[in-house]
Amino acid sequence: MYETTPVLRPESLPTGTEVGHWRIVDRLGVGGYGAAYRVEDIHHPGVVLALKLALRPGDARAGREVVLLMDKAVHPNVVRIHGHGR
């Protein structure tokens, strides 16, 4: 018999799932563009941040543009970008 790997969708990652060096703590919300999660840095326990994942990876160009704009913005009401990738 073949063993199947469950397909993980950005909008429904279970608590404890590891994405890169982040571990999902809980889901913050889902919108039209993506899903946001509270995550903990695996290498630095206690460091908790937010992770946003695109629902449609084909929108990578739009996502990069948002990251570039947010990275340039310095304001208390704009989140700071700690990293990005695919």
From TrEMBL:
Keywords linked to the UniProt accession: ATP-binding, Nucleotide-binding
The UniProt record lists the keyword NAD: no
One function term, GO molecular function aspect: ATP binding
Residues holding ATP: 52
Keyword Oxidoreductase: no
Top-level taxonomic group: Bacteria
PROSITE patterns from the UniProt entry: PROTEIN_KINASE_ATP, PROTEIN_KINASE_DOM
Domain annotation Protein kinase: ranges: 22-86
Record-given protein name: Protein kinase domain-containing protein
Organism, scientific name: Archangium violaceum Cb vi76
Upper lineage: Bacteria, Pseudomonadati, Myxococcota, Myxococcia, Myxococcales
